[in-house]
Each structure stands twice: as structure tokens, then as C-alpha cells.
């Protein structure tokens, strides 16, 4: 009856410094199940420290601890009891363990090395000790300036990578807690080793790949706390007695890769030295989000010898991570593994889009190491392919790709009977996996990999359907908050390594939009309250920079980044929509979100003040950007969408703006032209405004520009640009062409919310709307979302003139179900509901596209004779080249005059 007890969104967490909050889910095969009461009991050191008693309440999400003061480094047992409206009772057990709680409990000191500057190897700090008693438990608490890994007696103490994570190091620095009870040897000698590397702290970072962004020397701090069976405790902290050596890891940079030399002798550099007191270090805090782990592994899918003679292995999936290798027999001096996202149009290894990032790992070793399994430690690459040098006879089985990302729990699934859409959904998910690596990066491969706020903002809704993102975004938003100020506003990247840049619309609006999205999704009032000052600071920044007319019309703006509606030949990346129309649309939108947040938090005075500001912005906005008859100064798709979706225009002008949007899409033959700003909202807007069929057409387009164009080009992640790979197989050469960029994956929320119809009517999905829309080309879908209350499921099948739906609502919630072709909605409680009824709707998709070859059209649909009858003389037309493999897109590059004739043929075919 009760399951999935979570404490601060985690199962049985250790190293917790925050007051715990408890969540659980009810499960029952009965309908209309609601919780009536709960009881939480917490026991520490054999003593009851909190007993709520029986509380009559439906609350089952994020109940805050309110007992005795918690002790540091202590295990607490938790029992939750629940009673429902059927008088049934269930119980669930769990635990949590507090961390250091305060920095005063961190016994170890900061230590660093005295290695010469020319030493590129990574320092290992080690300590040998002996314990002579029986161990009850043992913990290591550790952090670093840089990144680190701990081994005890030669065994890595956890499966975590890139600790302590990337934060605003001068303000906040995380530490980690490790259980090493089973690794320590009793009554024997033990060795603890801490290997450290530059990471984000000292390593090369940013567009100029400049090192030392936070400091010019790495350092570590750790303490081992051993509790013995006799009740005594021993602590062993980092100090000047630790030895410093350089071992096999001779070079490590996130952008460039790692170099190992297993044949070289260990270099000793004496004892550790104290870190200089002048080094700026932020407040030390416990790990806030899930750590980075290996979450998926891929065997080689294909071994390739390229036209240039390169030995290449294809893993079949673009990802962020590294390659684990069983060291093969060398045919050269060393094994070199280079990484790339793609091959060029000739089939050769392609790395130009990596810019200065070398993305190369190398291993020097002797015969004694052949057959040993190794992998990098402190670097990651964006790749699908590797090029192997120095081992010409290497077997594909020796290489395994390891995908790395923050180990968020998957919360959503969406599948359909359309293979291209399924691949698109996979691409969206893998774009997130590849870029949610401790911070939400823009890309995992080139010399950038920064926490761009705009990318994260537009994708945050989709991200939270795919995975549980509460802790991931909470950590990142806390860094955003400490790096926001009145002078510069919200940074463009977080953590901010780009320096002082004035805030920019859509990017800096992550400060308001992401907290609000998290509140809608998880119902986390405490997090909304925590981020409210950040939300307010951003709105006040925009107000401070508004002119006399009340609008923000100055400074740099990204506009509708990478939109396609720019003038021909222009290299401007900000799109064709007026940049200040975009900026002030977000100014109004963020102000309204702030008003809503104030209302939810009970801040009545703020709510009234920001409601007034919002109305004044709307009035000025319509005066500046909308004529008296409802015409926009920018009649782009993005301008129309922002006006409609953000509800910025007068009701009487909405029909004209919607008509303008529809005509614009029609003028582009049903294609989008939107960039980073317009794309997330385009299809949502169309579906909500009664043009779901237009959104449907846009999503199912298979030619450029579209989502499925990339899929048909072999993409396994989302691209940065709509045309990252051209129809002829060549690449965009702007120097900014990632094939693993999640922003355009924002369409994923449309699949969940419009196709499957799952949306929250109350924060956290306490009340749910399930209102699926029939979508041409999708005869079946299955969607599931694991909310904080449990699984929400929406499934549909359209076969033999009958529509069938299965809808599941989790216990302790209610829902309103609105089915297609049904006039009335149904309000229901929890349970599984099935519906079936007859329909005349035809969801079959006509699949004639601009990427179809003429030969395919003839063979599959009409045959050669019927085709000639439809278009007399067609076989004498240059278009006959299609029959020999030339696609429409490729031909149009050579002859734009062919397009009208081809479109007439397509219309004729689709009318048969």
C-alpha cells in the first residue's frame, strides 16, 4: 500500500546536511484511494527523536522534519505509517544519515603539493595507517579544489565520477560522504590514496580554453572517521604527513583528454604542504544533487576502415562519456583513442566541430598490461565514433563506450507506432543524458560545455518529464542565485566563467521559469520559497533597465537564437524577430510568474505590486509592438507564438495574430522557422489555439527544416542547428555546430502534454488533466510519467474504426479526463480506466516527403505506368534522376526551378 519512501528526493541518503523531507507513494488496485492520515517516526541512536503522532492529512510529498536537533554523522531510522479512506494501513521503512553538518566537524586540513610547474602529472596524496580494533562503521568525508578520486587498499571507494562537482567554487563547494566499512582491513595496514586533477577548477575552460579560472593549484581535504565496536572513534585527516607522488596519470584535461603511462616509474614529491590561506574557498556543503555515474554501456556496433585508412569503431549512439578498453597488443609506441560525433560525407573521421578540444586519450604500457581493463578518470568526451591508433590488430570487443551523466532517476516514457518519432524521443533523452553532467551544459564535445541558462530554461519542462530533476536543478539554481547581482543580473552561464555580462532575455529568465516549472512538477513550496529572491532579483533587474516607456530596449540580446527567418546571406544568429519584442515578452512573462509565485507563497503585498507591474508592461508592450488593428511589428512565427502563448495581446487581436502565424507556416510549406526561443512553444501554442493539425504537420515533417530531418540523417541526439548536416552530407562550417545539443529537444513536452494529454492542474500533479489529442501519423502511443504521487499513464490505440484508451491515475490524486470526440469531461479518482468507442477519424499518415526518391515513390505507391499518366513526359524531365538515388533536396540544390513541378507531383500522389 505504501512504496518508494524518499528523503529529500533520494532513497536512504547518506551525508545529508539539510533537514530531511519525507515523501512516499500509495499503491492500491482499488479506485478513488486517498490518504486520510500518516505518522512519521524517526529513531537515532536507539532514541525516538520525532514522532508526529497520527496526523489527519492527505500530504504525502515533502513532509518536513520537525523533531529534535539532528546530530552530525549519525544514522537515523525512519518508519512511515499511512491510513487510507478504505481504512487500510501500510508501513514503509527507510533511513538517512547526516553528514558533517558544519565545517567545524571537518577534521582534515587543506593540503596541496610542491611539484615543479613543468610537472603535468596528477598528484596522488597517500597515507598508510594501521587499526587494531574491530570496526563498526567507517566513513570518508572528502572534497577538492579540482576533481578527485579516492582508493582504499587499491579499491575505488565509490562509483562516482567528477567529485566534488562543479559549483560556484568561490561561494559554494560540495563535499561527499563514502561508506568504506567493508573496504578497510581490520588489524592490518591500510593505505588511503586521493588522486586529484585540474577538472573545472584549474583546467582549461571556456571559448579561449584558458586555465586557472578559479585557482592555479589543486588541493584536497578529507577525513576518515572510524567507529569501533568498543564505542571509540578514530579520525585520520589530511595533513602534512601525507605523501605526494605522481603515478600513471601524466596529464588530464576535461576538453583534451588524459594520458597514462603504466611503464613509467612513480615520481615522489615529498610531503603534502598546507594550502595558502589566501586561496578563496566557498562555504563547504554536502552533495546536493545525484552524482555523476556510468549509467549505460555500449559495445561496438561496427568496425570501419575509412577511405583514409583510419581504424574506426562505431558505438551506434552519440553520448557523453569515455571508452573503457581491454588493452590490446600494441603495434606502435602507445594506444591512442580519438573521439568524434560523426564521419564526414566521404566516411572519414570528422573532428572539425570540436574546435580546439583534442578529445584524445592515450595509454603507454608494456606486455604485462595487455589484457588489463582501463578507462579515463577525470575527462569526458562527446562521441559516437573512436579512431584507434597504435593497435592495428585491435578487436572490437576490446572497446566499450561508457555513458556518463548525473544519475537522475528516469521518470517518463513515451513510445508510438511511428519509428521516426520513437527515434526522436530517444534523441531527446540522449541529448539530456549527454548534457546533464553535474550542470546543464550546452554540448559535451567541443571547447565549451558550459551551463548555458537559455538552453536549460527552454528544455526544463521536457527534462523533468524524462528524469527526476528536482535535486539537479536545485543545486544549479543555488549557484545561479549566488552569482546574480543587481549590477549584472543573472549570468548567461552558471557557474559563471565568462565574467561580467549584462543579463539577457530568455537566458537570464531561467531564474524565474525553472523555479516555477519545478513547483508545477514537484509541488515543492520550500524550493519555490528559496528561489523567490532570485526570481525577484531578475525581474527587478529588467525593471531597472527599462526606459521611460516602461520597456527594456537596450543592451545585448540573443533574440530568437539560430532561427531560420533571417535575411538571405546574413550571418546574424539572433533570428528575424525583433530582439526587443522577445526581450519584453520575457519581461512580462517573468513578471507574471513572479506574481504567481508571490500568491502561492502568501506574499500578498508583492503579489499586488507585481500584478500592477505586469499590467503596465502589457500596456506598453502592446503600444510598442502591436498596431491598433492587431498587426505585429515582427510577423515571424516566434513573434506570433510569444504573443499568443504568453498571453500578451488583447483578446480581440488574438484571431488575427493566429491567422498570421498560420499563414507564415503555410508560406513555408508547413515548416517551422523558429530558433531557441520560439521552438519550445510553437507546437504547444498551435495545439492550444485549435491548430493541433498544423502542429502535427510540423512535427511529422521529414525534410529540412524539421526534427525528423535529423533523424533521417542518422542523428541519435538533438542537433544544435536545424541544418547541422546539410542534405548533401556536408556540415555547417560556422564553428558552432554541435550534434548533441538538447534545446530543440524541448518538443518532448508536447508529446507528453498534447499527444498523451498529461498536465498538472495542481502543483505536483495532485490534480491531473489527461486530455489526449488525436495526432495524424500516430495510431498508437504509450506514455507514462512517474510523478511524486505515482505513475500517470495514458495509452491510445486506433484500429479498425475504434479508439481505445487506457488511463491510470495514481492514489491520493484526482484527475479530469477529456477524451477526443467526447463533449463532456470526467472527474475521477485514482485507478485504471479503459474506454473504447467507434470513430471515423483517419490517423494514417501520407508519407510522401521531400526526402523520398522518385524511384521509391513509383515502386511503393503507384508504379511506373500510373506515374507517367499522372505527369506526362515526367520521365524525360531531369527529375528522373531521383530514380537513380538523387533526393529532392539534393536536386533542389542544383535546380530550384524543379521545386514547383515536384510539389505538384507530390500533391497528385497524396490525392490518390
- Cα separation of the termini: 56 Å
Helix content: 10-25%
Shape label = globular
Secondary-structure content class = alpha+beta
Oligomer: single chain
Strand content: 25-35%
User: Got a strand count?
Assistant: 45
Give the number of helices: 17
Can you describe what's shown?
The chain is an alpha+beta fold. Helix content is 24%, strand content 28%. It has 17 helices and 45 strands. Strands 20, 21, 25, 26, 27, 28, 31, 32, 33 and 34 form a ten-stranded mixed sheet that branches. A hairpin with a 1-residue loop joins strand 36 (436-437) and strand 37 (439-440). Helix 5 (510-522) packs antiparallel against helix 6, helix 9 (637-645) packs antiparallel against helix 10 and helix 11 runs antiparallel to helix 12. The longest helix has 23 residues, at 579-601. It is globular. Mean pLDDT is 93; it is low at 849-868 and 870-897.
